[in-house]
Amino acid sequence: KSIIAENSFKQLFPEKVKFLGGASFGQDIDIHSFAGNVKAEVGEISPIALNDMPDFLDDPDVCLDLANPAFFVKVTMTRPLPADARTAISLKSMYEDGSSVDKSTGEITIPGGKTEVLFCVADHLEGIDVPQEYASLAQDMVHVKVDSLNKLLMRLPDEIEVDVEDIAMDIENLSIPYENKILVDYMVYTPLEFGPSFKLVYQGTEEGLSEDMEDYCKLDAKGIRIEAVAETNFPLDLTLSLDVQDRKGKSLKGEYVSVNDLVVPGHKSSSETCSYPVQLELKPVSGHTISEALERMDKFHYKAVATSEAHGKLYEDSYIKLTNIKITLLGGVSYDAN
């Protein structure tokens, strides 16, 4: 939540005053009211900074297909507006590579006669919970429909630029002097619901394994099998890939070893907890031995990809836990003690 703009309607006068008919004036003219169009300029607005987000969300392969994000905008005035006011809000997601995605509300109306108005900018209202800070205004909340607002967050942007157009009013009879401070603040709401394109990616590298492999290089076997039991209520299907690399980061997969992916199916209800046996095998390719791969091995690059083919929901208590981990050397084993 943040304040994005504060402005005042102050000294509101028409650009021109036109008198019709003939007369002479022997003293100053005092203007007590007028009718006309008035605009208030909205000052520069600080962009939305997405701080304290998990590092893995910056991965270029991540797709945040959030089902229905919402942008709540609260407008507070020190006194009711004398007439309906018009404005528009534009949002633009900015990315490090220079690309951007933008969405606009089109013209929206701030009703006259009120001191507080809450707008909900969203594709639809189904499933949206009004933040507690705005609960008192929920009953009269104005829905501003913007199709496919989730496109702003398909990738995690560096920031979201916010622009509010000049606030305009058509006034029939306004007593002057007139002053009204207008305060605008916002809150971005992203429910933990996702669409079929949603994809989380977490990857990293474990380095310096060559020193630990010195004794194992003397072993010769048909392969290495890692077995475990995956306990989960995570609603997304998870695929864990492992790449074996040498000191320079060159992959040994395909040339020296083959490694299968580890797959854990997802569940759609947080009340369900299921267990699956999972297995990952590292085997030498034809013409090589497992000891040759271990001699060259220095890094493990792992990549976990969570996906779903349907709409779903993440839960605060979602988890995946691997238990009963067992490592087995496959086939006949020989050890070179030299």
Give an account of the 3D structure:
The chain is mainly beta and 338 residues long. Helix content is 2%, strand content 46%. The chain is built from 1 helix and 23 strands. The strands form 6 sheets. Strands 2, 3, 5, 6, 9 and 10 form a 6-stranded antiparallel beta sheet that branches. The protein has a 5-stranded mixed beta sheet with strand order 1-11-4-7-8, with no helix packed on it. The chain has a 4-stranded antiparallel beta sheet with strand order 13-20-16-18, with no helix packed on it. A hairpin with a 5-residue loop joins strand 5 and strand 6 (100-110). The N and C termini lie far apart (66 Å).
Keywords:
six-stranded antiparallel sheet; 23 strands; 338 residues; mainly beta; disordered C terminus; 2% helix; single chain; elongated
The mean pLDDT is: 79
- Element order, helices and strands? EEEEEEEEEEEEEEEEEEEHEEEE
The proportion of residues in beta strands is over 45%
**Count of β-strands:** 23
Taking pLDDT < 50 over at least 5 consecutive residues as the criterion, the unreliable ranges are 1-17, 334-338
Please tell me what the overall shape is.
elongated
Report the major sheet: 6 strands, antiparallel
Radius of gyration: 31 Å
The end-to-end span amounts to 66 Å
- Summed up, the helix count is 1
Structural class: mainly beta
Oligomer: single chain
Residue share in helix: under 10%
